[in-house]
Fold this protein.
Amino acid sequence: MEKTMDTEQNTLMSELIQGKELTKQLSNPSSSPKTRQLLIQKILSTYEKALSVLNSGASPVDRKLNNNITILASPYSFPKCSPTNEALDQDCKDQCHSKDVYKKRKTMARWTEQVKVCSGTGLEGPLDDGYCWRKYGQKDILGASYPRGYYRCTHRHAQGCLATKLVQRSDDDPTIFEVTYRGRHTCSQNTRLAISSALSTKEGAKDKQSRYHHQQEPEDKVKQSKEFMIHFGTELKVKTEDLDNKEEIFPSFSFPQTSITETENMEHDIFKDSMMEMENNFMGSFSPSFLSPTTSESNYFSVSPCHMNNSFGLDQTVRTPESGITEIISTPNSVTNSPTVDLDFSLIKVDFDPNFPDNLDYFS
DNA sequence: ACGATTTGACCCCG
DNA sequence: CGGGGTCAAATCGT
């Protein structure tokens, strides 16, 4: 166990150091755009690895891997991973009185992601974020042209998982869905993903397709066809962090004491740029793959974990029962579909011991 | 038959 | 009192 920690720390350190070095290189004005892009990607990679170690699990961003979009893993970390919020959530769990609902609402970790869907087909919707959601309401919101969808974890009753999310389609850009997550998943069913080879088969893709509708856009009237397109050319981004606990914007991703603010700013700039570049270059190089029937199929690695907990996914997916964190994110095969981009997305894979089923003590 | 979604009613807060 | 969030009965889909 101690060894595990040591290893994690070493990994963390090396990743951070590497990131630092890469960042230095990035600041070299003489480097070519391509080089810079690679550097950015590598930096992202190191951050992700570091995050993985720190979190011992996936952040919501990581979860996006399920959506093929892995590439845009966000630099931000989430409040949900912080011990503080962990405690808050635990509180919430402990006192599940209906009257506390509103109080809980205030204290629960909350963060927003912007999910952009650029399918071009006009068919899209909230993507699978790796968890099983059940819609429990929809409401027209004042000033918003689209209704807001309310979702809660499918395992709310079975396991008392209090995670919920709101999906609001953007007024300005209908291709953007603003997803606000609340609370952490405490369910153990969301053994996400896993993609696994099983899914790269036609059966897998088909299977998954047929299971897809537990995720629907608020005003969707086109669910059928949407299911088919839902994974194509979608793009995800994490937008903001916790709203109520501002002090925890980077709760689990604390850099060494040295100039944190500077680091944060750096991050923003760097990632903003990288996002842009990645969008341009990546999408460019990926699109063909997405359009290809054969390769696109292999991109169907996004699977709702709740549907796979029996058959497959166990080998690649490890979840921590109480933390709501999925420990291993399988590397999207989109990587393999991208011969032009030399990205080390193994970062997404978390170094975690599958035999270590309960990482609760990680927080204790 | 069962689980998910829809949708109007209801509750709480500001 | 109105708006946002949740509940729960009705409905739908498989």
